[in-house]
Amino acid sequence: MADHARSDSPVVQAQLDRFAQLSPGRDILGLERITALLALFENPHHRLPPVYHVAGTNGKGSTCAFLRSSLEAAGQTVHVYTSPHLVRFNERIRLAGHLIDDATLASLLAEVLDAAQAHDLAPSFFEATTAAALLAFSRTPADACVIEVGLGGRLDATNVVTPVVCGIAQVGIDHQAFLGETLVEIAAEKAGIAKRGVSLICLAQEPAAIAAIEARVAAAGAPFRLEGRDWQIDPSLTPGLAGAHQVRNANLAAQMLAVRGIGDAAIRAGIAAATWPARFQRLPEGPLTVHGPIWVDGAHNPAAAEVLAHELAQHPMHLIVGILVNKDADGIMAALAPHALSLTFVPVPEHDSHDPALLAARWGGRATDSIENALAVSVGVDGVRTGETVIVGSLYLAGVALQLNATLPD
């Protein structure tokens, strides 16, 4: 499925519009195009600050947030590259602690796309934007660089970097069209970020996944440290992100940071202060919250839905659900539906998504055409909803909710 991006900045949007003409219009994996593109700029990926590289199916973005916050607590300036964005494309690229500004972003995208066009390259959206990020990172001084894998690991465009430490968060079934149908195949692809002599820290996984990861890591010659065998979860870490599962992501980040000699005080302070939007995030007061408390969470695959279900089992909520058509709707709903006070299904704007009416027929509940209408139909006669609401099923839908509530990630 092709990536999507919109910008309120005309100069940025002008460059984003060029992808329709220059790129294949779909996700593609492989390092040939990104390597050729970066060579046109004298290989900026070889001129980066120390890189922390994070893969996984779920939790890798949160792990990156803990890394960034802890490094900053240690007094370091940090570049960060993550995906997808939720509201503004700028969220993907953080330069020395600040989201990239529109003028700089537009100039970088133009530079990369001009070079690709002049040399008859056809990079994907993610390849070109990764090149722009790496170019920006090479030109702006910083002490560290946190990079999230986009898709998989072995053939992901970010895998051109040479990290100082790698991490693998939770591995689950997702993106089968690109990574393989089985957990073993997917785990092996994630472990493809391993580099000779570079420590790789891993959360505990299913035994078959661990075997696949260990085989890949051993072949690469990377030191390997596994949760539960080589290190233990420290329950005293207190994440700033909601959800019991964040303790494990925080510990993954802490282990990666310890390898680099970051002090315990900075790690603990950073983990406690970390923020990361749309990961079981309670919305602040805004246009959507006038009828009661609202949370947003991606929960875009069965493994992520299981994690959210653990929270909902303790505190059931009304669910507003939108799921992309290439996602396992039955797997997601099987986890979430038992803990729903009510179900309302909506489309994911500007993306191909499962038909809300069909989902409602299969799982019960209502179907409507927007988050706003979904909230309206579940309001009680007194104008106040009984119970809290969570908007789930897609990070893109979560981004819409953030925008409607005027809660822009910064």
Question: How would you portray this structure in words?
Answer:
By secondary structure, this protein is α/β, with parallel strands linked by helices. It has helices at 10-16, 19-22, 32-39, 60-73, 102-118, 125-139, 176-179, 183-190, 207-220, 246-259, 264-273, 302-314, 329-336, 356-363, 371-377, 395-404; strands at residues 51-55, 78-81, 93-95, 98-99, 144-148, 165-168, 200-202, 224-226, 281-282, 294-296, 317-321, 340-345, 366-367, 389-392. The strands form two sheets. Strands 4-3-2-5-1-6-7-8 form an eight-stranded mixed β-sheet, with helices on both faces. A six-stranded mixed β-sheet has the order 9-10-14-11-12-13, sandwiched between helices. Strand 11 (317-321), helix 13 (329-336) and strand 12 form a beta-alpha-beta unit. Helix 8 (183-190) runs parallel beside helix 9. The radius of gyration is 21 Å and the shape is globular. It starts with 9 loop residues before the first helix and ends in a 6-residue tail after the last helix.
Task: Summarize the topology.
Elements: H1 10-16, H2 19-22, H3 32-39, E1 51-55, H4 60-73, E2 78-81, E3 93-95, E4 98-99, H5 102-118, H6 125-139, E5 144-148, E6 165-168, H7 176-179, H8 183-190, E7 200-202, H9 207-220, E8 224-226, H10 246-259, H11 264-273, E9 281-282, E10 294-296, H12 302-314, E11 317-321, H13 329-336, E12 340-345, H14 356-363, E13 366-367, H15 371-377, E14 389-392, H16 395-404
Helix pairs in contact: 1-5, 3-6, 4-10, 4-11, 5-6, 8-9, 10-11, 12-13
